[in-house]
Amino acid sequence: MSPVAETAKTLEELEQEAIDALASGGRRTRSKLLYSALGALGFVAVWAYFSTVLEPYVLPSPLATAERMWELVISGEAISNFLSSFGKTMAGWAMALTIGIPIGLLMGRYRYARAFFHDFVYLFANVPLLVYAVIALVIFGISPWGPAFVVMLEAFTGIAINVAAGVESVDRGLLAMSRSFRRSGRRTARSIVIPTVVPFLFASGRVSFANSWKLAALAETFGGYSGIGFELEKAFQTFSVVTLFAWMFFFVLFVILVERVLITPLERRVFAWRDPAGSRERVS
Amino acid sequence: MTEVRTATLGGTDDAGIPELLLAPPERPWWWRLGSDRAARYTARIAFLAVWQWAGSTFEDIPTPVSTITFLVEEFQRGEVFPNVGISLLRAVIALTIVLVLGIAIGIAMARWWRVRYFFTDLILVGITLPAFIWALLVVMWWGFSNIGPIAVCVLSATPQLVVSTFQGATATPGTLLSMSDAYRVHTRRQFRWLVIPSMMEYIAAGFRSAVLAGWGAVLLVEWFGNDKGVGFRAHYWYDARSFDGMMAWGLVMMIIILTFDRVVMDRVVLHFRSWRVGAQRWS
């Protein structure tokens, strides 16, 4: 693989790898579950203890937080704000795909394009999220387009890098073979190039999704009028720790929900064409 | 281009000397525009040009020129060095704590399975939670203080270092370990030559992402509630509705982290990975 793709891939992907290494704990036996539960319970217990010591407006009890969360679910605010943030993230992702895929194809195919975009890829991947949020505010003011725009900026480089790596890893032998059997370009693209590139594309999506989600929420606290970030900002302005806690836990729940319901099944489907022994390694 | 290359590599001239040994053929001046270096500079100039165009077309967007001018004015006001200094100091203190805590928890998780399952969910949730939520919370609790930035930096950067330390500690090449056992290599020697080198690579990579996350966290807390620091100064100009000021301080934030990443972390990561070059076969 090219040095460009490797250096730019390292950080986020290494992190994802590490997270996966931690999360895949083998078979979940009873004693493992016990200790996981102990960890969660220990956290709640420490929290509950301190909430009895401190004033309730400083540290509300776990029960009060749960009640507040329930109220937000009943009133429908939880769902509507989740959908609002989700919509912005997805809009940003759609834009990132439309920009990132062509750039990635160019980067994989032409050396000049790779050198041209090299600095951008490095720059956009390492900008602090606060700077992105400021940029959204400067350009768009109070509008839903700000979060979507910066999610686009943040996500497209990862997409481009991975598409480029995918294009580079397309099997040259298979391409040569389809040329000598006179397959049409479209058919070659459909049955060789796209199946090789899509898993790479998907890997980039999975890695940077959590980050995009955080960025969208942050940009909403700066210039939004709906969404999780906006609700957090409101709780902050009204000095309501309970509400802030409630939205904090909603945030975690939503991320887990999207990961389990949307990404994991999709991942299984995208990778279904590969045999479990890892056909890609064998072919190359 | 392919034609040129074939001629150079394969052909011989009249005297029978391979062309490869002769001077490379003269190329027109524009040939160099296609080189990697030229491409990079073209990209940078194009970026500045687009930014300048956007800034001069839309009223609210600052141009590169006005941003730099503003930054020079901030230098003259003597605001840059004290604020950058205090932010850096906070980041350094917090990242030292992160380094100690992260490595300790990571190794403990790899060493004892009970510790591992105790912390797994907490760490995963910690990675999921964005720093700005911690920032809002901490500002409500402590207000303007030094505790806030340091606490949020520790809370949001430690999980990242923990996961990669854990991965490094479990990724020590098992075959090498059993071979050292077979040849009765002393435990301390095994640690010195096997376990620590293979772990350091992961720790360095984890610390790199921890630095990025930690710096972002310090900035966020300073933005939401502080009276000193880079983030505070950006927020100050936000309150004054000066987009030039926000952009200028955004530039400062970026320059600091990119310089550090390029100059320090890049080398640290490479240094700890260098032993692996050519050694992959054994791991």
Polypeptide structure, described:
The complex is a heterodimer of chains A (284) and B (283). Chain A is built from twelve helices and no strands. Chain A is mainly α. In chain A, helix 3 (62-74) crosses helix 11 (241-270), helix 4 (77-109) packs parallel to helix 7 and helix 4 (77-109) crosses helix 9. Chain A is globular, with a radius of gyration of 22 Å. Chain B is an all-alpha fold and 283 residues long. Chain B contains eleven helices and no strands. Chains A and B meet through helix 1, helix 2, helix 5, helix 6 and helix 9 of A and helix 2, helix 5, helix 6, helix 7 and helix 9 of B.
Structural class of chain A: mainly alpha
Q: Low-confidence spans of chain A: pLDDT under 50, at least 5 residues?
A: 1-9, 275-284
Describe the main β-sheet of chain A briefly.
none
Beta-sheet strand percentage of chain B? under 5%
Number of E strands of chain A: 0
**Element order, helices and strands of chain B?**
HHHHHHHHHHH
Q: Helix count of chain A, per DSSP? A: 12
Low-confidence stretches of chain B: 1-11
Q: Radius of gyration of chain B from the CA trace? A: 26 Å
Question: Could you spell the SSE succession of chain A in H and E letters?
Answer: HHHHHHHHHHHH
Distance between the termini of chain A: 13 Å
Rg of chain A from C-alpha positions? Answer: 22 Å
Characterize the quaternary organization of these chains: heterodimer
Roughly what fraction of the amino acids of chain A lie in strands?
Answer: under 5%
Give the overall pLDDT of chain B as a whole number: 83
